[in-house]
Amino acid sequence: MINNQLKSEYVKIINTLWSGTMQCNSIENISDDVIRLMDEVLTKIRNGSTAMIGVHAVFEIFYSKIYSSWAELIKVALDTADAHASDWIGVLRGNRQYSAIVNSAALGYKSPVQIALYEAAGFM
Question: Do residues 94 and 103 touch, judged by C-beta distance below 8 A?
Answer without folding.
Answer: no
